[in-house]
User: Fold these one by one.
Assistant:
Number 1:
Amino acid sequence: MILVTGGAGFIGSNFVLDWLAQNNEPVINLDKLTYAGNLNNLLAVQNDPRHLFVKGDINDGALLAQLLAQHKPRAIVHFAAESHVDRSIHGPAEFISTNINGTFSLLEAVRAHWQALPEAERAAFRFLHVSTDEVYGTLGPDDAPFTETTPYAPNSPYSATKAASDHLVRSYHHTYGLPTLTTNCSNNYGSYHFPEKLIPLIIANARAGKSLPIYGDGQQVRDWLYVSDHCTAIRRVLESGRTGETYNIGGWNEKANLDVVHTLCDILDELQPKATGGSYREQISYVADRPGHDRRYAIDARKIERELGWKPAETFDTGIRKTVQWYLDNDAWVRDVQSGAYLTWLEKNYTAR
Ligand code: NAD
């Protein structure tokens, strides 16, 4: 049994689906179901006895203690976070509460549980903290990509709170000996991605005939990784990573935002041509840049490749095509998110166990 936090969000739900497809080991999925948590993502495992969904907050120490005592998971995979940079600019308080205080409360509950385990179980236990490359700050065009030893220099409230949580995790390993692992991954894309983020937003707006907003000059560079490759990497780190270590995860796919948008328009032009003719590119509109917008992120993923033999299975070209196709095939999911209908889904449909 493993315990996943934030398993109703974008990456967490992909991870839970992937985990249950690859293993027979059950998952407790603890998620607060904020606006970003969506049980529609988990329809495929709704009645799977190996999936136990618990609606709850990682700040709730009593709930955490009870879940750990009752289910005795051998590992924690910690995804739960406030994750949207723009929201962190307009309202950082939730980011402090979940990303910093929530990670602290989770670490405290896990430490107490772990310290009481018999020696052999203590040694085998793992706490895997899922983090971002944004903690490293921004790169110039000619700078080498981030490695695991790049100094932290977060620039947004989101990345600052993730950096703080990374440091807390690190300290619990060095101070208490908790067997931790931290992963710092680049931008993910793929199925179940909430349409406030660049790729699903562009696909949704293009199809709705709305404008495709580009921040500033659109030349901000990100490294992109298909979400199922991230899930595979996390499984690999969980099974074989060295405790106390951090692993950078990336796809070697540096792309300027404008190029990503052009690619999406071109794939849509091919798969779903506009009824009115012309290209989706005509809907592009430039908007004021995000304050403090980092110019470039790039990940050096050689450590995880060398030590754990992980490599992404998808290139950007194959992954982005699959992603567009997924959104074309899953209109109902997008509509539910846009209308807010998914927010009442738990009450209507989910059988609590
Ligand atoms: P998401 O916003 O889609 O999902 C976050 C999930 O956490 C949601 O289901 C939400 O309900 C839940 N949650 C929020 N606050 C909670 C709380 N207090 N208690 C319990 N659950 C809570 O995020 P995501 O994009 O899936 O990212 C998951 C993790 O991966 C985050 O830690 C993020 O920092 C990290 N990450 C994301 C990316 C990316 O490109 N999306 C890249 C690298 C790392």
Note: The chain has a mean pLDDT of 95.
Number 2:
Amino acid sequence: MRTIDWVDGAVEIIDQTALPDTERTLRLTTVDEVIDAIQRLAVRGAPAIGVAGALGVAIAARQYADEPDALTSAVLRLETARPTAVNLARGVRTAASALGGGPQAVLDAALALRDAEIASSAAMAERGADLVAVLCGSAPRLLTHCNTGGLATVTGGTALGVVAELHRRGGLGAVIASETRPLLQGARLTAWELGRLGIDYQVAVDGAGPFLMARGEVDAVILGADRVCANGDVINKVGSYAHALGARAAGIPFIVVAPETTVDEHTPSGETVEIEDRAADEVLHFGNARSAPPGARAINPAFDVTPYHLVTAIVTDTRVIEPNA
Ligand code: MRU
């Protein structure tokens, strides 16, 4: 299964808004369709939107072959479709740097990024599983947040790829998927992926995480990142910081798994990263039903910042970073 790919001259994605009930593929043929899919989270997860952005430039290079101003504007709109994950801007710039070579060169650059992300997932799974075994011993009970599996990358995944690799090795104790309010990437997507992998799991509300850690039911937290800053601050789905505080209080490791394409050496720390604010309705509704009284207002940061001093290790495709070493 590939979350995103280039098929017969268009971008094809698994529509993540429809999961877990409906498995459908969307075919994106214009820049506007790619941007809309990124913003609606039909394609989501830092590495996946990096590839989506790069393939979006490949579409732009064809769509606006004779309109240089429109092409420049399309590239900018793709780059800024979502602000927080560094992979998106990076993926768009990688593909755009090949624009001088024409549409085929842009597509080749985007496909090279896709292939690099697939290889990264495989490398992180091995390195991460080795590290978890060292830090937690055999049969660790892990808590993960948001969705970091093949859906968030191209295939494989980051943190969930490590979970899958531990399972393959026969060295996984248990997995708790934190539901990930408000859009339920954990309950909808991680649970769906774990089921397909044949891995037993439990879903917990986000607020239960730190308590389950305090009660001794979790051996480590393992999750992904949308941006890793130069000092080791980790930007990830809102709720990650609470799990990091819980892990520190319980004295268990907090492990981040992210490809080098998510590591942003140009951003010194988390303070300056733009955190995406999403629509109030995502918080004020549960599914299609309103859950707050009419007139209620909401604040909806999609990500948070976990300071480096709460991070035990960051596993990438090429190294293990220990921000506090
Ligand atoms: O808003 P989303 O669903 O795109 O957020 C995704 C996350 O926060 C993931 O944890 C992160 O991208 C790491 S995925 C490999």
Note: Residues 41, 44-47, 85, 146, 148, 152-153, 158, 185, 224-226, 236-237, 302 surround MRU (CB under 6 Å).
